[in-house]
Amino acid sequence: MGISDRKEREKTELRSLILKAAKKLFLEQGIEKTSIRNIADAIEYSPGTIYHYFQDKDSIFHEIHTEGFQELGKKMAVLHEVENPFERLKAMGKIYIKFAFENTDMYDLMFIKQAPMDFLEKMDCEWDEGQATFDVLRHTVQGCMEQGYFKGQELEAVTFMVWSAVHGMVTLNLRHRCKVVNAHTPDEIVHASFQSFIKLVEQQ
Amino acid sequence: MGISDRKEREKTELRSLILKAAKKLFLEQGIEKTSIRNIADAIEYSPGTIYHYFQDKDSIFHEIHTEGFQELGKKMAVLHEVENPFERLKAMGKIYIKFAFENTDMYDLMFIKQAPMDFLEKMDCEWDEGQATFDVLRHTVQGCMEQGYFKGQELEAVTFMVWSAVHGMVTLNLRHRCKVVNAHTPDEIVHASFQSFIKLVEQQ
DNA sequence: AATATATTTGAACACTGTTCAATAAACCAA
DNA sequence: TTGGTTTATTGAACAGTGTTCAAATATATT
Description:
Two copies of one chain form a homodimer. The first copy, chain A, is mostly helical. In chain A, helix 5 packs antiparallel against helix 10. Chain A contains ten helices and no strands. In chain A, 74% of the residues lie in helices and 0% in strands. At the A-B interface, helix 8, helix 9 and helix 10 of A face helix 8, helix 9 and helix 10 of B. Chain A binds a DNA duplex through helix 1 and helix 3.
């Protein structure tokens, strides 16, 4: 079946061409400028074609969001080298914040935008990407607890709290709610408040 | 000038009629269904009329966002009765979380959506509503520090960190990122992690 | 009553996501 | 090579979006 193999290959090629164009537009011009028609223009196909490779716009953004998690995962890979759990937690926070600042639109898509979650809801799927990332964090927090941090606390609640703290800092920035903070650039205030959070955990 | 007085009154009346209809649509059907045409339909005027009372859609949502801050402010008023700064901080957090859960769309508009911030940017205005709220929080955190909490920390960084933690918990919920947390309803996990945060501050 | 001012209208512009009948291309058997 | 079948692609159409603006209407003043 050499012919049907090629056809299969061509189908996945056009699919990834659409995805590549969508991601390029998304990263260069933001989610607002990434319309179906703009993607179609970029690859010189008609808008209708896109709907033979993706069920809707949300599914395209869900795939881009997944690529975002792969990129974040790569950056987190270095954490394997950090044996001390609390050092690993600190390093993880720094990588997370750095990723958010260097990939604002991608972070937005991964953790704020509705599109990827709407897609999962429609497909009745789990949020595997988020789950895997949360599991890594949970494991690190558990290591910290075994070393005496977060004394008398519940693992799941602490893990979510740690995530929330960092996510909060980042998103208040991304959505321009940091104007109210004195004497710091948006970048500085996030790093200062992250240090502040770490101090809080250390000083138990 | 009785006539021009009445005309002035009629102008502000139509203006607030637009705003009232916009807020009703916003609260009942969400921001997506609140289009200029839907607002115009609701008050039985043509879409063009709205642009004689508001410069654009963002300015309407900015005004609704301001009403949201007034409502949050009212709920925060009871905090004057709590003299102990740390008790006040805890109570403030609970009111903030309760407000977010009971007014999800409004919280979204106040702290996540771009619209109100885009309006301020265009008008070259300060975010007075956010500023006032942050000032109240800063004052409470300062009180806590004077009582020995957040030892050796910087006021501005701690205040932002506290806000971030609570904002993070709330927004991960509102944007459906809590599926990854085990054995809790979205509501429960937020309260558990808020308690977890409070414990962290207490156990210094 | 005629003029001047203020208000309101709704069509038009340039977009959006999505659908679908029609067209074009590719493939396969005779 | 021809004819028929399957597959891929098209682009117009639908129902919506924010926004603008000349024209029509309503109100007020002389």
